[in-house]
Structure formats: C-alpha cells, structure tokens
C-alpha cells in the first residue's frame, strides 16, 4: 500500500500533535540539577558490576557558518583557534572518565558529533583519537562501530583517507536538500559535486557504512523538488538515510528566526513529501526502519531490527543496546546503568569545571522501576513495531493490563483507527501506526508530554 493511502484528513487532524522523538525515556525535559557527581559515581559502580561494553559520544560544537534550520548545540565561529582550548578540556575529561570505568571493558561504539567535527584540524583530529585510544579499550575494526558526522563542505578525499586511518569505519553526511533555492533559504550552500565526491572517497577508503541526512519541511520545498533530491541520493546508493521532519520552533531556536514562515510548505504539502519519500525509498529497496530512518536490507540497522536487537539512543536508531553510553564534551548526554546525565551547556562552565578537576555533569535523571518498565515498552514499540506482552511481563515482573489499565482505552482507539492490533499476547503496529509511532508511545509516557507541546515537534 502506498503511504498516501494510509491516512484520511480526520485521522491527520486527530493525531497531528506534538510529542517527543523518544531518543530517551524519560526525555531530557525531565533531567534535573539535583543529580550530582556522587549520583553519577554510584551509577558507574553499577555499570562496572554489569561489565557491559561501552559507547562513547564526543561532541565537537564548532561550526563555520550557521544553518538556519539547526536546533543543535553549537558555537558559530570562523576562528579555528577557538577549538584548541576546548579540545584540551575534552582530553582531560576523557582521561577523568576513563579512570572511573573498568579498563577491560571494550568500547564497541564511538561517535563524533556536532556542530561540525571536521571543523577541527588534521593534527587536532589525530590528537583527539590518540588520547581516546590511550585511555579507553577500543574494539578492532571488525567489531567496533566508529562513526563521524561529516559536512562535505569541510571535507575532501584526503581528509576522508585520514579519518579511515584514524579508525573511523562509518560516516554520516549532512545534505538536507540538493535544491539550490532551498539551500539558499536555509543558508547551507552545498554543491552536489562536493557531496558525491566525499561519498566516493569514503567508498574508495573502505568505509563500511555511509549514511546521509535529509530534512523535509524546509522553506521552498515541494513534493517535486524533494523527489528530485531523492532521485540523486538513490543513485548515489548510501547504506542508510535519515530523513528528518523539520520542526519550525523559532521561539526556542534563534537561527530559525531567519526562516520565512510563509516559505514553508503547507501541512498537506509536507505530509505529501513524507508519503513520496517513503514510497520512493522503499521502491528503491530501502527498508523503512521507523520514524526517520531507512536502510538497505543488508545494513546492520536493518539486520538488528529483524533480530529484535534494535536500540534507540540520543543519536537515533542504533545497534548494541547493551552498551553504556558515556557523553563527552559540552552538552553531551550519557546513559550509564539506570540513569541519564548531561554535561554543562556553555563553553565557559564546561571548561571551568574541568579546570577545577571536576566532572562537568550539571544535571541528570535516575530511573525508577516504573520508568524502566515504560522505557522498555516505548523502546520495543519504536524499534520493533510490536510488543511481546508476556515476555516483558516476565522480564520486569508485573501484569501489563493491570499496570496500564488507564492506557487500554487509547489502545482501543488506536485499534479502531487501524493503527495497531492488540490482544492478551502482543501489540502489533500496523502500517499507518508506524508513521504515528510517537503518538502510540506517548500514551505510555506518564510525564504528560502532551502538556509541554511547545518543547516538541509535531508527529506529522
């Protein structure tokens, strides 16, 4: 069935509400400053007792120019000298964090995000990876997933070759849209040749997975223009695609105030773009992983989903659900044992805490048993599009229908709207429900995210 056949107007109106993307549960909105470094150390102790593999996220916040749509934590500067003091602080944090974790625990995943990680120089990249390897036990190339976000305007074949030599074996390229008018409207001028040459260089150097990021709902986009971008992307044959729904929230993100609201596609046009995207990519052989991700059938993301081992974290869909995540750098978020934690959000406070030999954690959240139950349900629904009710009852020790008696009416309505099917054994998400999975997850969220709609993007 084509994506456009899944909805009618009344269904769209009913479910076009704001809600989290559930890269965590509870979401970062619930993080609080009562979470201390002592709390973190307790979670690290629990983590070491479990002995699971580790995942590292390193945040490089600098960008040369601002993209108007961006909602990331970044520092806009053309002065490359600003990076060095930050990197020195980051080196120190890496050493301090490594001291806390059992040195035998292997790092299975590593990700450099931003900002623009390729903002920093070749020598700075070499030094940062060297410090990381010095302090953490990184897996070899066959077992580790080491990825980096690439701005093709900040990369060339020589830099791609260096990244492969440093140990990166996966990369993600920011594209958003190839249309020149759209690029101008969002202040991201990027030629097709720049992008495609980076992709070709990555293949030449033996990168195991190449992902591209696109955004639909940007100013001056149409079904036709975005379809043309998709045609070019499909021809380039990336292993994965992230196709994000642009959330226009200028009150929250100052750069978005540069975007003219009247140039944004209408709600109906935006939905039509989504329909076209799903149909075009699935016809080209990509698997619709969920929400905003697509992958080739032989990509580890699609394989993990088929095996019931897909995970969701602060970077989106991921493999290796068993890894504890250590966030490094300003604003970074970690997930260790049964808690989340986030670093200081400003450059000054981040660097000052480390200068004082303190971990730069400024807020976090310790999960209750109720949170763990709800997180497991939301994670499995958003990753598997199904829930084995009996298995999760046995795993977490509760009776599903008694525990969630207040949710049953919503499940019945979802079933009536043909978003899902459910019985005493399982919940099974239907095709229309896959596009509205955030709405379904929302009914299991006890923090009433519906009342905080200004903080979240629209589901459709």
Automatic annotation (TrEMBL):
<comment type="subunit">
    <text>Monomer.</text>
</comment>
<dbReference type="InterPro" id="IPR010723">
    <property type="entry name" value="HemN_C"/>
</dbReference>
<dbReference type="InterPro" id="IPR058240">
    <property type="entry name" value="rSAM_sf"/>
</dbReference>
<comment type="pathway">
    <text>Porphyrin-containing compound metabolism; protoporphyrin-IX biosynthesis; protoporphyrinogen-IX from coproporphyrinogen-III (AdoMet route): step 1/1.</text>
</comment>
<feature type="binding site">
    <location>
        <begin position="115"/>
        <end position="116"/>
    </location>
    <ligand>
        <name>S-adenosyl-L-methionine 2</name>
    </ligand>
</feature>
<comment type="similarity">
    <text>Belongs to the anaerobic coproporphyrinogen-III oxidase family.</text>
</comment>
<dbReference type="GO" id="GO:0005737">
    <property type="term" value="C:cytoplasm"/>
</dbReference>
<feature type="binding site">
    <location>
        <position position="247"/>
    </location>
    <ligand>
        <name>S-adenosyl-L-methionine 2</name>
    </ligand>
</feature>
<feature type="binding site">
    <location>
        <position position="188"/>
    </location>
    <ligand>
        <name>S-adenosyl-L-methionine 2</name>
    </ligand>
</feature>
<keyword id="KW-0004">4Fe-4S</keyword>
<dbReference type="GO" id="GO:0004109">
    <property type="term" value="F:coproporphyrinogen oxidase activity"/>
</dbReference>
<feature type="domain" description="Radical SAM core">
    <location>
        <begin position="48"/>
        <end position="284"/>
    </location>
</feature>
<dbReference type="InterPro" id="IPR023404">
    <property type="entry name" value="rSAM_horseshoe"/>
</dbReference>
<feature type="binding site">
    <location>
        <position position="176"/>
    </location>
    <ligand>
        <name>S-adenosyl-L-methionine 2</name>
    </ligand>
</feature>
<feature type="binding site">
    <location>
        <position position="57"/>
    </location>
    <ligand>
        <name>S-adenosyl-L-methionine 1</name>
    </ligand>
</feature>
<dbReference type="InterPro" id="IPR007197">
    <property type="entry name" value="rSAM"/>
</dbReference>
<keyword id="KW-0560">Oxidoreductase</keyword>
<feature type="binding site">
    <location>
        <position position="114"/>
    </location>
    <ligand>
        <name>S-adenosyl-L-methionine 1</name>
    </ligand>
</feature>
<dbReference type="Pfam" id="PF06969">
    <property type="entry name" value="HemN_C"/>
</dbReference>
<dbReference type="GO" id="GO:0046872">
    <property type="term" value="F:metal ion binding"/>
</dbReference>
<feature type="binding site">
    <location>
        <position position="149"/>
    </location>
    <ligand>
        <name>S-adenosyl-L-methionine 1</name>
    </ligand>
</feature>
<comment type="function">
    <text>Involved in the heme biosynthesis. Catalyzes the anaerobic oxidative decarboxylation of propionate groups of rings A and B of coproporphyrinogen III to yield the vinyl groups in protoporphyrinogen IX.</text>
</comment>
<dbReference type="GO" id="GO:0051539">
    <property type="term" value="F:4 iron, 4 sulfur cluster binding"/>
</dbReference>
<keyword id="KW-0627">Porphyrin biosynthesis</keyword>
<dbReference type="GO" id="GO:0006782">
    <property type="term" value="P:protoporphyrinogen IX biosynthetic process"/>
</dbReference>
<dbReference type="InterPro" id="IPR006638">
    <property type="entry name" value="Elp3/MiaA/NifB-like_rSAM"/>
</dbReference>
<protein>
    <recommendedName>
        <fullName>Coproporphyrinogen-III oxidase</fullName>
        <ecNumber>1.3.98.3</ecNumber>
    </recommendedName>
</protein>
<feature type="binding site">
    <location>
        <position position="63"/>
    </location>
    <ligand>
        <name>[4Fe-4S] cluster</name>
    </ligand>
</feature>
<keyword id="KW-0963">Cytoplasm</keyword>
<dbReference type="GO" id="GO:0051989">
    <property type="term" value="F:coproporphyrinogen dehydrogenase activity"/>
</dbReference>
<feature type="binding site">
    <location>
        <position position="70"/>
    </location>
    <ligand>
        <name>[4Fe-4S] cluster</name>
    </ligand>
</feature>
<keyword id="KW-0949">S-adenosyl-L-methionine</keyword>
<keyword id="KW-0408">Iron</keyword>
<feature type="binding site">
    <location>
        <position position="213"/>
    </location>
    <ligand>
        <name>S-adenosyl-L-methionine 2</name>
    </ligand>
</feature>
<dbReference type="InterPro" id="IPR004558">
    <property type="entry name" value="Coprogen_oxidase_HemN"/>
</dbReference>
<feature type="binding site">
    <location>
        <position position="333"/>
    </location>
    <ligand>
        <name>S-adenosyl-L-methionine 1</name>
    </ligand>
</feature>
<keyword id="KW-0479">Metal-binding</keyword>
<feature type="binding site">
    <location>
        <position position="67"/>
    </location>
    <ligand>
        <name>[4Fe-4S] cluster</name>
    </ligand>
</feature>
<dbReference type="InterPro" id="IPR034505">
    <property type="entry name" value="Coproporphyrinogen-III_oxidase"/>
</dbReference>
<keyword id="KW-0411">Iron-sulfur</keyword>
<dbReference type="Pfam" id="PF04055">
    <property type="entry name" value="Radical_SAM"/>
</dbReference>
<feature type="binding site">
    <location>
        <begin position="69"/>
        <end position="71"/>
    </location>
    <ligand>
        <name>S-adenosyl-L-methionine 2</name>
    </ligand>
</feature>
